Amino acid sequence: MNIERKVLIFDTGPLRELILYEAVHTLGFKRLAPDLTHLRSDAARDRLAQFISGFQSRTTTPQVVAEISSWVFRTDSQGRANIWSVVYREFQGMGMDEKLIKLLEMPRDIVAEFGAVDTSLLKLGSSFNPGEPLVLSIDRSLIAKCSQYGVTALHLWEVIAGPGF
Question: Which domains occur in the chain, in start order?
Answer without folding.
Answer: 7-160 (3.40.50.1010)
